[in-house]
Structures are given as C-alpha cells and as structure tokens.
C-alpha cells in the first residue's frame, strides 16, 4: 500500500477514484501494521479500488481535518463522498465485505 504524500494528492484521489480506501496508522499502534498488511493483500486483486496509508504523526493536519483522532481508522470514499468510517476496534472482514458491497453497487 502506498503512503499518501500530501493534501493535494488526497484531493485528486477523492475526486478521481471510484473507491478510495484510506488507512490511518500510527507508529505506536500495534494492530495498524496487521490491518495495513491485510488490506494491501486484499487490494492487489481489486483493480477498481485505490488504497493509501496515512501516518497520523506525519500528517496531523490532514488527520484532524478528516476528524481522525486515533489509529487505526479506515475511511472509504466512493465517487468523492465519505461512505464508510471504522475506528478503533472493528472487524476487518466485515469492513472488507462493506467495501465489496459498495463496489458492486457502483
């Protein structure tokens, strides 16, 4: 999974990608690396889904602007609109099911 570079890249991706998955991570978050690894593996088979990782330490303003206050947090944008937000303790398999359901509707 590629790292998000800056706000400008985020703006372009939100407005151009059919589905964008943002994985907000922290260096002190133990589950974050496992989530990132599983999302990356799953995303390889998904041509219509773009994934980016965002470090809340490296991009605090971006995280704050999106109301991200803890990691792990995953945001899913579909056709430019925030459609799914999961934070803290959540089921990764259920999140993936939601994203796949969303993909089938678009």
Automatic annotation (TrEMBL):
Keywords for the protein's UniProt record, in alphabetical order: Disulfide bond, Electron transport, Redox-active center, Transport
InterPro entries according to UniProt: Thioredoxin-like_sf (IPR036249), Thioredoxin_CS (IPR017937), Thioredoxin_domain (IPR013766)
GO cellular component: cytoplasm
Domain spans labelled Thioredoxin: 6-100
GO molecular function terms listed in the Swiss-Prot or TrEMBL record: protein-disulfide reductase activity
Keyword Electron transport: yes
Superkingdom, natural source: Bacteria
Family of this protein: Belongs to the thioredoxin family.
Protein's name according to its UniProt entry: Thioredoxin
Organism: Lachnospira pectinoschiza
